[in-house]
Amino acid sequence: MAALRRLRKCPSTGIVISHLHTSSRASAKQHYKMLVLGGGSGGITMSARMKRMMGAENVAVVEPSEMHYYQPIWTLVGAGAKSVASSGRPTASVMPPGVKWVKSKVQEINPDTNTVRTDDGTEISYEYLVVALGLQLHYDKIKGLPEGLEHPKIGSNYSIQTVEKTWKALQNFKEGNAVFSFPNTPVKCAGAPQKIMYLSDAFLRKTGKRAKANVIYNTSLPVLFGIKKYADSLWEVVKRRDLQVNLRHNLIEVRADKQEAVFENLDKPGETKVFEYEMLHVTPPMGPHSVVKGSPLADEAGWLDVNKDTLQHNKYPNVFGIGDCTNLPTAKTAAAVAAQSAILNRTISKILKNEKPDKKYDGYTSCPLVTSYNTVILAEFDYNGQPLETFPINQAKERRSMYHMKADVMPHLYWHGLLRGLWGGPGPYRKLFHLGMK
Ligand SMILES: Cc1cc2nc3c(=O)[nH]c(=O)nc-3n(C[C@H](O)[C@H](O)[C@H](O)COP(=O)(O)OP(=O)(O)OC[C@H]3O[C@@H](n4cnc5c(N)ncnc54)[C@H](O)[C@@H]3O)c2cc1C
User: Fold this and answer.
1) pTM for the full model?
2) End position of a domain, from candidates 254, 286, 318
3) CA–centroid distance, residue 396 to ligand 1 (Å)
């Protein structure tokens, strides 16, 4: 907030000037050495790193949102363990000082002319481009859902508009089915759809309502979790706590007025099953960002087509990508963004010197699987789906210490380490804890 207060408006140009950074809708300077698209986890991180590499005056970030959110904490917000206010800070306060903030939406990327166009018609040219636009949520792809979200008893931790509705629905639960969905698309943080199930179960137990509840997880996937080591532990939790898991069940319709959710059996296309609910948590279908999908930068599926080792674009050597918008074959998480940022920083520094990129991203990603209000299984793995654990203990075990990592340590690392370009993932600590063996 202090940063916001320091902002002052320059009346003649309409340009907002701060002691920290400059921000504009229509800027006089339309060319930047480094242009970053998106000011989320990956975009802010890379702009901080690029500022150190080439000076603040050479870096601009295009980001329309006034607020920056730490999305991983929404799992705990939906379960009432953290406030929604704790998840957001003004974008002005996380933008690296001196870096130009272009407060607009990118509408078009033209890598053949090294330009982008924003929604107010401004054309910005660049020498190097980092794309960090994230992915898109498609609540609209489920029949009846957009209007259904107006009703109580439905929540979704995946958006700032609906995360508090999850907590309200949980608090108002009386008896019946608590249903949790996982869509038939790639998602960000593939553990989040089931974390809220475990937390809801824990809440219902704490409040004495569990005996009157059926807790049901309907997932499109053929497995509970993609990495066997952690899936085995999660199945034990599911059995111990009498949770019902239905694999290959995909949410296709919500009838909010009747409190019914319709799932398709993916193994028997066309066969549907109706679940009545007292509470429904929806993880929406997700897909590539439309601006990336509609550009020459996309692969066939619409994701940003980057080299999986170096994060450099496969066709345009002055374009790079990070985070959820890319086709990197690993789980889409902020933890992955951290590890990617260190590699991408190295790749760009080499390209600037006309040298070959020499460091390879191993696909590191992490998912703190919250199983209650004080336990977490900390999944960490690589491109091959092999566990790549930081601590020299079995992380597939539910642990109180890992809950504190998730709830208290990681937010701090995010705001003060990652966003300042100072946290490149736990790799060095992993080496240290394993005496250089991993
Ligand atoms: C409920 C939930 C739980 C999660 N849990 C975890 C977890 O436990 N651990 C973990 O590591 N990760 C977790 N994640 C995932 C993590 O938040 C994302 O993977 C991460 O934020 C990806 O960073 P990004 O920069 O790729 O995308 P984002 O951080 O989403 O940033 C994209 C940015 O692009 C901007 N943008 C969009 N369109 C435009 C446009 N046209 N022009 C300009 N800018 C635009 C957006 O405003 C946004 O700021 C969770 C996410 C959710 C929703």
Assistant:
1) 0.94
2) 286
3) 26
Taking the alpha carbons of 346, 351, 354, 357 in that order, is the dihedral positive or negative?
positive
For ligand 1, mutation pick of 230, 303, 333, 388 (most atoms within 8 Å of CB): 333
CATH at 396:
3.50.50.60
Provide the pLDDT for residue 107.
98
pLDDT digits (tens, 9 = 90+) for 340-349: 999 999 999 9
Asked if 106 and 195 sit in the same domain, the reply is no
Q: Are 194 and 95 within one domain?
A: no
**C-alpha span between 25 and 31 (Å, rounded):** 14
How far is the centre of ligand 1, averaged over its atoms, from the C-alpha of 333 (Å)? Answer: 8
**Where do the DSSP E strands lie in 63-159?**
67-69, 88-90, 100-102, 106-110, 115-118, 123-131, 135-137, 154-155
The pick from 70, 180, 185, 188 for probing ligand 1's pocket by mutation, whose C-beta has the most ligand atoms within 8 angstroms, reads 188
Per-residue pLDDT tens over the stretch 371-427: 999 999 999 999 999 999 999 999 999 999 999 999 999 999 999 999 999 999 999
